[in-house]
Queue: 2 jobs
Job 1
Amino acid sequence: MYCIYCWNTDTKVLDSRLSEDGSSIKRRRECLNCSNRFNTFEKYEKIELTIEKKSGKIEDYNRKKLEESIQKAFNKRNLSFKKLDLIISQVESKLLNKRKIASEELANYVLENLKEIDESAYIRYASAYNNFKTKEDYLDFINKNL
Ligand SMILES: [Zn+2]
């Protein structure tokens, strides 16, 4: 996605909502170079990427699955479409031009975003990914990362 004013490709998503027919996302972006703002209508990008799990198993990247894991981290607390789309679009921007990554790398991209947006979702996501079992697992993670 490039800026319509200066063609710079570094832009920030300010807002997003699903189009009325549900087939695309309307995003409001700001150019990080010239600071102009503009709207885009984007189809979900099909990301061709394979993920290597900790077990060594390989699977295709699946946006839906990523969404669900993030929704789970927010539990029943408020996660708007805008917020979810923002997290996913930021994570996916790191995945473009890659063919294969470790699941750990994907989890780290998600965690980087969650850390800024919502601390308890951040901890919950890390817990789900790393299989925290004891109070010490949580405390250790919090002490190291927050
Ligand atoms: Zn620009």
Job 2
Amino acid sequence: MPPTPPPYDRVVFDCDSTLSTIEGIEELAAGRPELRDEIAALTDQAMSGAIPLEQVYARRLELLAPRRVEVAQVGRLYMETALPHAREVVSVLHALDKEVRVVSGGLMLAVQPFAAWLGVRAERVHAVPIRFDANEHYLAVDETCPLARAGGKRELVESWPGARTVLVGDGMTDAEVAPAVAAFVCFAGVVERPAVVELAHAVVRRPDLAALLPALLSQDELERLQRDPRHRPLLAHA
Ligand SMILES: [Mg+2]
């Protein structure tokens, strides 16, 4: 049982390997086979907590030096690889008056269009801005963005006033937020990381975001959805 049971007012989703099956940074590396293993190893070490995020963040982007068009392409890949029922779950949460946010260590230029496609309001999307040079090649990461460093998600989540927050994610940067929220749900439907599972108040392993609903909603909210013919079909997947 989470420290604070539902209902929650705010639902915060991680992006990579949570709303979508991909890791955006690895997709940027896909066309660069000579770098792919190095990038994947850095990502995995950061996500499992072996090395702090800020040590790998700028390093990965410097190695890849993506062009603007490549980052935008990752946004389209996020949509193509969205978890089943991602849009429906966002829609149901909005119908129940939840504040839905996306908090990602991914690149804003890719995460923003994906979040918009899911129905999340622009001002509720948080990711890392990067700058490009005059030729639209990668120049630098915005080092002032807390999401590019360890503990940054927690810093951001704690900056929001009062609502009862539940956070859903698969990585160590998500698990770090657990003590600061009403509940942390580990979504292990894409990747299961034992160190993250250990810190979670609940774990969902089925690769379908509808499977999160029993952890995100109270019995009363689930019953309200059950009575609504527009939402009932989604609950069959919960
Ligand atoms: Mg993730």
